[in-house]
Amino acid sequence: MANNLLKGKKGIVFGALDNKSIAWKVALEAVANGAEIVLTNAPIALRMGSINELASQCNAKIIPADATSLKDLEHLFDASMQELNGKIDFVLHSIGMSVNVRKKRPYTDLNYDFLIKGLDVSAVSFHKMLQVAFKMDAINDFGSILALTYIAAQRTFPDYNDMAENKSYLESIARSFGYHYGKHNNVRVNTISQSPTMTTAGSGVSGFDAFFEYANSISPMGNASSEDCAKYCISLFSDYTKMVTMQNLFHDGGFSSTGVSQDIIDILQKK
Ligand SMILES: NC(=O)c1ccc[n+]([C@@H]2O[C@H](COP(=O)([O-])OP(=O)(O)OC[C@H]3O[C@@H](n4cnc5c(N)ncnc54)[C@H](O)[C@@H]3O)[C@@H](O)[C@H]2O)c1
Question: Which of 76, 163, 253, 263 is the most exposed place for a label (fewest CB within 10 A)?
Answer without folding.
Answer: 263
